[in-house]
Amino acid sequence: MQRYDVIVLGAGAAGMFAAIEAGRRGRRVLVIDHAKAAGEKIRISGGGRCNFTNLGVGAERFISRNPRFALSALKRYTARDFVARVDAAGIAWHEKTLGQLFCDGSATQIVQMLLRDMAQAGCELWLGCALSAVRRVETGFEVDTARGPVGGASVIVATGGKSIPKMGATGFGYRVAEAFGLPLVETRPGLVPLTFAAQELDWMQPLSGVALPARVSCGKTGFDEAVLFTHRGLSGPAVLQISSYWREGEAVVLNLAPGVDVAAFLRGEKQAAGRAMLRTALGKLLPERLARHVEAQAGVAGPMAEMGRATLDQVAQAVGAWRLVPVGSEGYRTAEVTLGGVDTDALDGRSMEAKGVPGLYFVGEVVDVTGWLGGYNFQWAWSSGWAAGQVA
Ligand code: FDA
């Protein structure tokens, strides 16, 4: 049986980063993935430009049973550290918005950088190789693979979450955790479009393609970003963000004109141009199709001069606090991330090693640490992978 110092399960962002670090320390590293290519999610990320980190990393931007757990790794390997590596590789980048850093060119540059670093660090990579089990043995661990069993002093589990099964997501890492008696926090799709019942879709579908900046809230949490109406319901960054906080049965509240006192605006419009239709006034705040929809929903016709204050207040309420109850989400099929995972209580935050199972590490999305949209999830993959790579 072939033996290695470190076997990394999964050649995604976290696994490749952990492998590079362990390899640079002189460890003999094998990385195994059942996919045909490494870093497939990196390749398609950020619309093909990879939003590889965010300059605003902080505990409040991560969802976990213990959001402070992630801080140790995030502080030891920071966004600036990753930027320095991207710079050293000669990859041009830009800040798009909200601290989000993207490649100027293509996300494949990041994949190529990681593959090159892995090769330079002497890491071996087995692609197209299925994994079936991990066992503890006297010398460390044995991993059952499609190429037969391999032995490793340490195993780093970096198989990600359940999001996008079509791309090879399996939930294998959760099974490994369970096999070693580690607790799991219930998993659910995150950063995912929200779906609606037929009665809502009847009016939403004609709005499909309409996008606008808005504030979307659920309980006390809210995000100011774009909202997009689709033929299934709501999407766009603000909706993806809130989906990670939304639970079945809850409402989401849309403010379609954040920062605007809509009631005062409508009163002003009525005074200035009383003969104008409501949709014309609303069209100064909203895309035309949406303005027409709000007018129709309000059941009003005729010029604004004929509308009383109560009617205008009602319209303002519809624009500023539009309450909608999703029936669900598009699920793991399109979710960018998986919330939940290996309970952080079971891991050492400095090394990502499982407490009570020396030599077994969990990094990246398989852990119960999920970032907001905007580069936070890759930063978690780099930071947690880096932490494990220092010690495994
Ligand atoms: P990741 O899922 O990347 O890697 C896991 C690897 O394990 C995969 O290569 C998989 O094939 C392999 N594997 C799984 N099960 C296996 C098994 N049973 N046997 C063998 N191998 C197995 N984040 C961000 O910060 N900025 C962004 O721009 C984006 N954009 C984005 C777009 C889209 C469409 C998605 C789906 C996701 C994003 N993300 C993102 C999220 C980001 O991609 C994600 O958080 C990281 O890829 C997680 O890295 P991991 O290495 O933990 O898992």
TrEMBL record:
Residues 5-390 form the RsdA/BaiN/AoA(So)-like Rossmann fold-like domain. Keywords: FAD, Flavoprotein. It comes from the Bacteria. Its cofactor is FAD. The keyword Flavoprotein applies. NCBIfam families: aminoacetone oxidase family FAD-binding enzyme (TIGR00275). The keyword Flavoprotein applies. It holds the Pfam family HI0933_like_1st. This is NAD(P)/FAD-dependent oxidoreductase. InterPro entries: BaiN-like (IPR004792), BaiN-like_dom_sf (IPR023166), FAD/NAD-bd_sf (IPR036188), RsdA/BaiN/AoA(So)-like_dom (IPR055178), RsdA/BaiN/AoA(So)_Rossmann (IPR057661). It comes from Paragemmobacter straminiformis. Residues 188-337 form the RsdA/BaiN/AoA(So)-like insert domain.
